[in-house]
Write a structure and sequence with these properties.
By secondary structure, the protein is mostly helical. It is built from nine helices and no strands. Helix 1 runs antiparallel to helix 9, helix 2 packs parallel to helix 4 and helix 3 packs antiparallel against helix 4. The protein is globular, with a radius of gyration of 18 Å. The N and C termini lie close together (8 Å).
Length: 195
């Protein structure tokens, strides 16, 4: 049964975490940028759009690169890990407005770049009988799309700042990348392809 397959459970967990982080970032990015009071409203509007434009470029570039390298695990894992790093650096950049904007664009560039590749992992990592069921089960990770924004909003209200929520998003992305990487490593064992 695919639900008992350890690789499927890891992929569900990774997808839950990455959706949790992505949806909270997408939902709250305009509010984060709006808090940059050192810029006029028109500039804040333009800055709020930049990470989304960068995200589109990241999705296209990563999809193109995976076709050339045939390394789907790395092209799934690296964007997740990079997004966690960029979000952590956004917090550490503090009031350095130009640096925060650049880091938000980098986070935007990598935050959804995993999308063209993630759904190829069940076919790559699992046996024939498990992969079709795995795709359906991994979709359970979409629950993270509710949890992430809710938790981020709660932390913003409780602390009065965005830092705590951004740390949680960074941790979600880093953990999702680590789970994906360990999933790929464990799939190399002979027992993982028996189903």
């Amino acid at each position: 049964m695919a639900l008992r397959h350890p690789l499927v459970l890891r992929l569900i967990a990774a997808y839950f975490l990455v959706v949790m982080g992505n949806q909270a970032l997408v939902f709250f990015l305009p509010s984060i940028v709006d808090a940059m009071h050192g810029m006029p409203v028109a500039a804040r509007t333009a800055v709020a759009a930049l990470p989304y434009v960068c995200s589109m470029a990241g999705i296209l570039l990563n999809g193109f690169l995976v076709e050339r390298t045939h390394a789907p695990v790395w092209h799934t894992t690296v964007p997740m890990l990079a997004t966690g790093v960029w979000l952590g650096l956004v917090i550490l950049a503090g009031s350095h407005l130009a640096m925060v904007i650049v880091l938000l664009c980098l986070a935007g560039f990598t935050s959804q770049a995993y999308l063209p590749v993630l759904w190829t992992l069940p076919s790559t990592l699992l046996g024939k009988s498990a992969k079709a069921t795995a795709v359906g089960l991994i979709s359970l990770g979409n629950i993270g799309g509710f949890v992430g924004p809710y938790l981020f909003g709660y932390l913003r209200t409780a602390t009065g700042a965005y830092a705590a929520g951004l740390w949680v998003l960074a941790a979600c992305m880093l953990l999702a990348g680590a789970i994906t990487l360990t999933t790929a490593a464990s799939s190399a064992s002979p027992t993982s392809r028996q189903t």
